[in-house]
Amino acid sequence: MKTPGQSLLEKGKVREISGNRVIIIPDRSAACFGCMNMECKAGGGFLIAENPLGLPVETGQMVEAQTDAVSLIPQALTAFLPPILGFTAGFILTRRLFPGAGEAVAAFAGLALFFSAAFFVYRARRGKPVGTSYTVTRIL
């Protein structure tokens, strides 16, 4: 388990270079079993990294990018908190607005707002990715 302050490393191939910004396709051949690499195969799985060291990176090169583990906490909260709050709001509002409604109705309303909030976060992130916290540390 990683402790706060440790770095997380990602290895991948440089897809595009734009000034000091490098777009990297992560090398997740076996590590990403959850979605069976479907998101990566569709072209959505990429990292945006800064190149503050001015390394001579070129398209197609394998590089290593790193980020501080603590910097991922705000990103995780913005991804997970809205759906949880959506479920809570849907459940509580249904119980208050319709006191005669049972637990199943309140749970259904909570799930509806849970998935609505999750979809909203997904669409917002697809349109405007989170600011980068990765930096290119070396060329492999």
Structural commentary:
The chain has 140 residues and is of the alpha+beta class. It has one domain (7-139). The chain is built from 3 helices and 5 strands, in the order E-E-H-E-E-H-H-E. The chain has helices at residues 38-41, 72-97, 103-127, and strands at residues 7-18, 21-26, 47-50, 62-68, 134-139. It has a 5-stranded mixed barrel with strand order 1-2-3-5-4. Helix 2 packs antiparallel against helix 3 (103-127). The chain is elongated and about 65 Å long. The model has no long low-confidence stretch (mean pLDDT 80).
Summed up:
The protein is an alpha+beta fold.
- Quickly count the domains: 1
Low-confidence segments, given as residue ranges, are: none
Order of the strands making up the biggest sheet = 1-2-3-5-4
The helicity comes to: 25-40%
Could you tell me the number of beta strands? Answer: 5
Rg estimate, integer Å: 20 Å
Please state the overall shape, judged from the principal axes of the Cα atoms: elongated
Proportion in β-strands: 25-35%
* Number of helical segments with 4 or more residues: 3
Oligomer: single chain
- Report the structural category: alpha+beta
Question: Helix-strand pattern, N to C?
Answer: EEHEEHHE
Biggest sheet descriptor:
5 strands, mixed, barrel
- Average pLDDT, all residues: 80
What is the straight-line distance between the termini? 25 Å
What key phrases describe this protein's structure?
140 residues, alpha+beta, 39% helix
Question: What is the fold's blueprint, element by element?
Answer:
Elements: E1 7-18, E2 21-26, H1 38-41, E3 47-50, E4 62-68, H2 72-97, H3 103-127, E5 134-139
Parallel strand pairs: 3-5
Antiparallel strand pairs: 1-2, 1-4, 2-3, 4-5
Helix pairs in contact: 2-3
